[in-house]
Amino acid sequence: MKIKCSFNEKNRVKKSIKVEENEGSLPKGIVYKLCLNRVLSSWGDRTWEFATGLLLIKLYPESLLLAAIQGILNSVAVIIFSPVIGRWIEKSPRLREAKVTLFIQNGAVICSSFFASLYFKRNAIENDSLREIITQGAPIAFVLFSVVGQVFSCGYTLVLEKDWLLALVSNNQELTHLNALLRQIDLSCQTVAPFLVGFLTQYSEFATASFLCCWNVISTTAEYLILRNIYYTGPQSVRNTKSVPQEHELKIFDLLAIKEYCSEFLLPGLGFALLYLTVLGFDSVTIGFLVTHAVSDSLVGAVSLCAGLFGIFGTRLFKECVEKCGLKVTGQLGFILNLACVAPCLTM
């Protein structure tokens, strides 16, 4: 009898533990909706990110100046306005912040795509003065709206990854797993999207710009409906009012945060920045350089597809290398392999 009682007690304890874990976990329906939202947003971001480099060289084929200006404006705008958007996100209701960042980001991309489409169809306009205005103004409008889209794309990422996920998931292990799953979705979109965009651009620049415009219209509606559904059917924590620390209420640019960053993260951040300077990435300037040297758009997309596959392979290999070799050895090995691959590209 004692043995049976002790056995039954153990079973009860195990069942209670499982019930507590299930109660604290996020429902599968919410997880599926988050994954679907990430597929839509990542596909739009990755197709637009790659298409920007191709369209810029089509809009201004004489040189890479427009692509370089767009890259600089993107970086400067993100550095300046990201803290402002972050402070606003900290104080805003979650559904409002998602709606504002989503609609402004995709609205800016829609406007950029529209001006690109207008540029590629300018020869059909009979009015010479109007055609000249479109020829000169469409590339400028394209760059400006693309910069706005990039800034609010960062804001939308902050909303989902640094606010919504933390409010939805209370279990650190589940949060880590969900972040890894969403990251894999993003890498998969980053791998496949350039190939499709390169093929479309090879066929027709106007078709590419029109496709991006229509996709963002559909994607914006679908993403908002998904987030709205998650907001009203998800855990109560996502609908709770945020508690903002008093020291953050009136601050936009936090000098104390910069001081803390310089004291703890300056050297690692500087090292990462110097490493980034050695990376030959598929940004707008690199894509424009390849296109101006008679490399077809579809081939650029195929090469980017291969690069994305290596990126996915690298994320899986990193964990095993750290476990066997340690973090420092893995970092040094990655740096050496990076230089070994980049150096021949730069010397040729």
TrEMBL record:
The keyword Transmembrane applies. InterPro entries: Ferroportin-1 (IPR009716), MFS_trans_sf (IPR036259). GO terms for cellular component: membrane. Keywords: Ion transport, Membrane, Transmembrane, Transmembrane helix, Transport. It is found in: Membrane. It is a multi-pass membrane protein. GO terms for molecular function: iron ion transmembrane transporter activity. The chain crosses the membrane at residues 64-88, 100-120, 140-160, 265-292, 298-318. It comes from the Eukaryota. May be involved in iron transport and iron homeostasis. Belongs to the ferroportin (FP) (TC 2.A.100) family. SLC40A subfamily. This is Solute carrier family 40 member. It comes from Leptotrombidium deliense.
